[in-house]
Amino acid sequence: MTDSLTVRDNRTGAEYEIPIVDGTIRATDLGQIKTADDQPGLATYDPGFLNTASTRSAVTFIDGEKGILEYRGYPIEQLAEDSTFLEVAYLLIHGELPTQEQYEQWVHEITYHTFVHENVKDFMHGFRYDAHPMGMLMASVGALSTFYPESRNISDQDNRHIQIVRMIAKMPTLGAWSFRHAQGKPYVYPDNDLSYTENFLSMLFKMSEVKYDPDPRLAKALDVLFILHADHEQNASTNAVRSVGSTQVDPYSSVAAGVGALFGPLHGGANEAVLRMLRRIGSVDKIPEFIEGVKNGDERLMGFGHRVYKNYDPRAKIIKQQAMNVFEVTGTNPLLDIALELEKIALEDEYFVKRKLYPNVDFYSGLIYEALQFPPEMFTVLFAIGRTPGWLAQWQELVTDKEQKIARPKQIYTGDRTLEFVHREKRWA
Ligand SMILES: CC(C)(COP(=O)(O)OP(=O)(O)OC[C@H]1O[C@@H](n2cnc3c(N)ncnc32)[C@H](O)[C@@H]1OP(=O)(O)O)[C@@H](O)C(=O)NCCC(=O)NCCS
Q1: At the N or C end, where does the chain have fewer CB atoms within 10 A?
Q2: Is 22 marked active-site?
């Protein structure tokens, strides 16, 4: 067996041998396939990158058929069960789990960078009263590049490290302030006595009390949700971070691009759609009618199905458990009964079984966020905070990868050629 592909170009009869490495061929190897020396070489056409690898990566492994997700080789179930979000962030960024000393140092560094420059507060105050928190987050994380101009020196490892720490530390502050802004409430400064997620809850919900005392079960649920969202290999927002980062711009600008991509309803918005769907169904007895509508193609069962997972999304199981823990604190949500029954019916129904449609990460996350009193506009902000270490791990991998170049795809030009320009005075005469 030879690890190569023999290609015969039926236009010319010429044959080419193209190496296969890691189950891929190099698209540039196709460039030698030409009908004549002065003609362009063969290229591939792949809108949406359905079958194109853009990078080698050692950050996250997914096997969608089997429902496996691993960060740096560790199964997501074990990380969600036994680690903390900051430990996972360390793992993603550094490639290995921290020693006790490294962990304490890392937590200390992140904790002591949660404050933002006072000017950031003024800047955020400038947004309209009804500004979408995700728009505020995108703008304010991008604005951090103006506060840390040295972040442009991306080839210096120490410099990269400090920007990574700053961003992981400050995203909850920016996210919480965006939330408070929309509510017309004063921004709450970080409390460095609290853990990462406890402090986030404090910045979100603290009012006149001297010290905010978050329920540990809620803080834990949020921590687990952040872990589950921390990375997902080359998803749309990570691709945006990498694409912008490939220009060698500073990491704040790259992450702002990632926040922008995540803002889109095809990426970060499905859990809100799940809530709307559950509300529309309204009660358990309406489920059979709804399922019939889905099977007739009138609508989709939101929170089911995934481009990559053709099995139970491993994150969905963990989120379901966390939803139960949260409802223990907040009291149950009637929508939960509908969700549970819907899942039960769908997992047994031939339509869904045949198409390998299983609950995805969004099926239960919206219910948790709602129970934690977040309005739907905040759902993607929470996602962005969780995804930040993943974006940064991928950004760091990109800027240290000698094989990477500025991301600049080819196109198939379909427009006119060599038209003759007529001055507007003549055209409009
Ligand atoms: C996630 C999603 C976009 C993946 O889409 P995809 O990989 O392009 O899959 P397809 O749209 O080709 O679906 C394959 C088949 O399953 C059906 N299907 C897919 N998701 C479905 C859903 N949620 N409800 C009902 N039917 C669904 C399609 O109609 C299609 O059926 P057909 O073969 O009879 O035409 C899709 O499953 C979906 O829209 N899910 C609901 C939204 C959601 O939860 N998104 C969050 C993802 S994390």
Answers
A1: N
A2: no
